[in-house]
Amino acid sequence: MSEIRDERILECLRRIREKGPKVRCCVVGTGHGGLAMAGHLGIMGFPVRLYNRTDENLHAVRWHRGIKITGAVEGFGPVDLATTSMAEAVAEADVIMVVVPATAHRFVAEQMAPCVRTGQIVVLNPGRTGGTLEFHRILRAGAVSKSVLLGETATFIYASRALSRSEARIFRIKNTVHFATLPAFWIPEVLPVLNQAFPQFAAGDNVLSTGMENIGAIFHPALTLLNAGWIETTRGDFDYYLGGVTSSVTRVLERLDKERVAVAGSLGIHTVSARDWLYLTYDSSGRDLCEAVQNTGSYRGIRAPQSIMHRYVTEDVPMSLVPLASIGNMLGVPVPTMEMVINLANMMHGKDYWAEGRTVERMGLAGMSVKAIRQLVVGIE
């Protein structure tokens, strides 16, 4: 039965590849990233449908019949349909790009479960840490028997901002973005389809590897919380990275980064340091992480959040730091700096991100050995 299923998927992928620029795309989400991706896909000539659960956010796109893009990409991207119906949005799609905060992945998976069909490609942009594992678990809980090709990127391909409900600015397209599927053996079949639009996508090892390459976990929560006074006084009126990353702040970020690398190592995953990631992604070099950040020209002009009640904390703590710390705790890897930042966020926000976050239980990893986890992501039954 597995061989028959795989043959059906391969046939679906062959048909999608043959479409070339006619590949039908659905973008889920109309935030900074969703508008940028939908507009760029439209500019490149791909048929695009756009989904958002709030109809108000779609009015301008419907009125203009597309999205204006400025910056690293210039042009107008047509959008064929903008809808609040998930079934309508994904019905004809070959590739579904999920571009929402990771805190919305559960909702999107629940809404998508009854609608998807065999051979459709669903990509979380990005998965943060454990995104595909949790998404897959929800699809299975929803009795999805169809063979959907589920994957994730390690980071979002653009540095972008929405300028209005129908306009986005792309500051930079990243050089390389690692991509993986669950299970990993589908990567060579799915990647050529995605590369038709995004040649920057490169093969990752598996979804453990992409999840551990979550640099947002290092840069976002601690940087925001450690600059809380400045953010609240100025309402974010400063360059977030170039102003907020100082030598003392960097020492905390480097400790966080060492713990991330250690958790990855406990799973047998090699991942690059944050400093090396800046060089690979933005060509930014430096003697240490602070200097590398200061040498990242693409960060110039990116303003700080206006409040610490921002996705850099509300998303990246429960969906990035909590899963990293949860895996570390299960495997006996000390993560004191991660725990400190999570607890600091709890105090500042009056929340319990440990309870809300993506734990090993929610990722379906609780009680599993390293061997069993690796077999799961590779696809050994």
Secondary structure elements and pairings:
Layout: H1 2-19, E1 25-28, H2 32-43, E2 48-51, H3 59-64, E3 66-71, E4 75-78, E5 81-83, H4 86-90, E6 95-98, H5 105-112, E7 121-124, H6 131-141, E8 149-153, E9 158-164, E10 167-173, E11 177-182, H7 187-195, E12 201-203, H8 207-212, H9 216-219, H10 221-226, H11 228-234, H12 240-244, H13 247-266, H14 274-282, H15 289-294, H16 311-314, H17 316-331, H18 336-349, H19 353-356, H20 360-363, H21 370-378
Parallel strand pairs: 1-2, 1-6, 2-5, 3-10, 6-7, 7-8, 11-12
Antiparallel strand pairs: 3-4, 8-11, 9-10
Helix pairs in contact: 1-7, 5-6, 13-17, 17-18
List keywords for this structure.
eight-stranded mixed β-sheet; 381 residues; alpha/beta; 2 domains; 21 helices; N-(1-d-carboxylethyl)-l-norvaline Dehydrogenase, domain 2
